[in-house]
Amino acid sequence: MPEGDTVWRACKRLNQALGGQELVRTDFRVPTLATTDLSGRSVLEVVARGKHLLMRLSGGLTIHSHFRMDGSWHLYRPGEQWRGGPAHQVRAVLETAAWTAVGYRLPVLDLVATDAEDTVVGHLGPDLLAPDFDRAQAITNLQSDPSRTISEALLDQRNLAGIGNFYRTEVCFLLGLHPWLPVSAVDLEATVELNRRLLKANLRNGTQVSTGIDRPGQRTWVFERAGKPCRRCRTTISTAMIGDPPRARVSYWCPSCQPAPETGPN
Known about the structure:
Blueprint: H1 4-18, E1 25-28, E2 43-49, E3 52-57, E4 61-66, E5 72-76, E6 90-95, E7 100-104, E8 108-113, H2 118-121, H3 135-143, H4 150-155, H5 165-174, H6 188-205, E9 238-242, E10 249-253
Antiparallel strand pairs: 1-6, 2-3, 3-4, 4-8, 5-7, 6-7, 9-10
Helix pairs in contact: 1-6, 3-6, 5-6
């Protein structure tokens, strides 16, 4: 699932290709924007806010999108074959003279006034990848519900923005935190800092790696390794769902390296 680093890389590519360029054709394939024509407007910049992508246009409009599980933006040169998926999965087409940006499987795609972007991202906590990341505010947000599990607290974008299941799972392993451990029992400063360091490192690397080994099958400690031996102690990796539907997420952990709290799965 796309997380903060994935969205930041997508924004960088889109901004390099489209920034400062005029849109010569737009095609939105969602009901709410089906008749919208943004041709003639220029792309001022493309920025990330947590897992949200904001494409700011001249005339005070912003195209807002969110990848959720499998959305993506692809860039193609004129005449190049589109390879992001079948045509029925295309949600938006934005053309300039030099590039075509195609949005696939975007579950969130809307148009807002640029000066009203807070209506779609104002609920987010501090962005871990932002140059002005407010560490103190992020920690204060996490501390607001000390009995909540650290897993649920880290995934709540209202606390801090950019962490997804990969980072939450891997950071908990690296710090020896059981997924059901309450926030009150966690060194939040260390947890926030490690999440930020991993996100920033993978922003440069272009892949999501927590082990330091960027090879297939060796990039993670416990994420998506249910039933396999722990890379540290050889204990079988456990898995279970954490949180309430529809926000429940699968969790992975090593029962030996991440001791269980008094409540929660062992």
